[in-house]
Amino acid sequence: MSNLQKEFTTFHNTIKLGTYDENKTLRDKRDLLINELSLALKDEKIPGTEIALTFTKIDLGSYAMKTGVVPDGGDYDIDVGVIFNVTRDQYDSHALKKLVFDKLNKQHNRTVEYNRPCITVKYAAGYHVDVAVYCTEGNERYIAWGKQHNKSTHSWWEADPEGLKTWVNDVDSDTERRTQFRRIARYLKKWKGKHFSDSGNIAPPSIGLTIQARNSFIYDQGSDLNALIGVVKGIKSKFLQMWDSESQSFKWSIEQDLPVKPYKNVYYKMTIGQQDVFYKRVDSLLQALEQAINEDSDVETSKILRKVFGKDFPLVEDVRASSVAPYVSTGNNA
Fold this sequence. Notes:
globular
């Protein structure tokens, strides 16, 4: 059996993207947009009052949870929340989110999109910022959720962005176990980046993979490969077969709710056909990982894992004898 822990460590060091505190470039890009929004809102008031409309920032996403990877193609995804000093009664969710959208949509060097969970600001430089809009009532947070041109879909959804970060980070009290979990989450994201690049098959959201990895993770000292296999088995076990009326056939389907408010299914965007593709690729991943760990040859194991993760996974050199030992005469000639 082979686990190539040395190669996994090298691979992880290659794909790892640090937190905002560790990565000045990402931190500066995040702060540039937040400072711009703050300046654009400086004259805004809470409706019906003379109280200034203000917000505080909260870091979200994989960088905040310490599971970020260097993106394929260079599209860095920066997630940040803006928590406003208003209650649900003081500001309509659609109105406040549209205000933020309008303030950020005034420059021409970028594209601004109004999405259900957030506002996405895309830059030609190869990164985008997802801005989630929250209000606050005491210790409770509510996210402005809904489509841009359909006000009936809009509402304040109870949410717990701080709780989600805490839940992921509290996978274990032991530092090394938490570190292995984060490595496993990064491996899954790298696999996703390689195997869901085809158009027409929406990739499973990274938060879904992270939550499922957290649910299935069992620490395995000295073997990231073995721990990863356990997690992938756990993900596969969550799929159920359901009847798809459109194709008139059974397909594999999956749901995974957030572990904190609003407890929404994180795979809500995926059609049943896309979920079925997701299952088949998880199944192929599991088969490849099990083949890799059962190989006697480290060389062959590394070749399999490179097909799984891409060229960033190091190949083990096939070291062979460069020459055959010469024939030595015994000297006993007749």
